[in-house]
TrEMBL record:
The keyword Transit peptide applies. This is Mitochodrial transcription termination factor. The lineage of its organism: Eukaryota, Viridiplantae, Streptophyta, Embryophyta, Tracheophyta. Belongs to the mTERF family. It comes from the Eukaryota. Keywords: Transcription, Transcription regulation, Transcription termination, Transit peptide. InterPro entries: MTERF (IPR003690), MTERF_sf (IPR038538). The keyword Lipid metabolism does not apply.
Amino acid sequence: MLTRVISLQLMAFNRTRSSLCLFCSLSSPATATTSNLALVDCLTNIYKLTKIQALSISNRFSSVKSPDKPQLVHKLFLEYGFSETHIRSMILMSPQILFSNVDKTLRPKLEVLEQLGIEGYDLGKFISKNATVLTRSLEKKLIPCIEILKEILGGDESGRDFMQVLKCRWILWSDPQRLLANCTFLESCGIVGPHLALILKREPRIFLMKESELRELVSRVLDMGFLQGSKMFTHGFYIVSSLSEETTKEKLNLVRSFGFSEGECLEMFRRAPVLFRTSKEKLKFGIDFFLNTVEFKKSVLINSPWLLMSSMEKRVIPRYKVLQVLKLRRVFKKEPSFYNVLQCTEAEFLQNFVFRWSDDVDELLVAYMGHRSGSSEEEES
């Protein structure tokens, strides 16, 4: 009997607790806290946030009762030339900025960024996308990272290079020790001075890698036959860092499918590392055209892989068609090398192979421009 009574009491208690939980879950967060209405009014009237956004922030910082700091923060950003849109974006991204000390915390960070050449509207635009920068330690993060980056970039009076690096938003508030360690490691691999600055501008994320990842990347470049400390090692390192191992293997296998040995493939990529960035479609079309249509020997592509990076539609094929017309006209005493023809500038080619033959100039222009305009229309469609 006693057991049954206890069981019934427990059932009643559970029903009461369930009812309370249901009541609490139905209570709107927007009405849960009403003690800091002054902050809500500040956020809706001054920052132009929606009521829901303002209530969300006020509930998150429920201990804040006064709108004094948010008002001063808004005034500071306007003083620095930020737009209302910029201010709103950064506050929604990092609302803790609202309660920062204007003179001790925010202004010094803004001044440091201004010294990099980022001012007014541009500074507002940068902060609106990288609001976290204002929540990081000035002494432990921002200043050390900035000093390391400036040392790598050297004389960058316009600040243009620095802005390029800042496209990698995390680099300003990364671990300065890792940044410095990666810089030292790359220098030990022979990537120094302007070469180091080149890597930083093109692939700043490399400087944020773990040491194990960085060493693995260097090993991949060395395995491809690039000589450590050489100029091409820097270019190879940059290109390989932007591609997965799978993509690299796919490009090598594609070239090998045309009868090139692995050594010949690697030689081509060592001579022109950016060849790895050429799409597989363009690479395949180019090799096929040069070997089977133009009938170049493989050695030509091995020694001059830049040919495969030329625009097939706007440069290679139009010039080839013009030469075919001239061959049919038998205007040459000695047929020119198509390889040399491809090295001509646009003006040189037109002068020597189109306008020079006044009797055939219309047909030559049709052969030259017809393919270019046709390919352009296809690309646009």
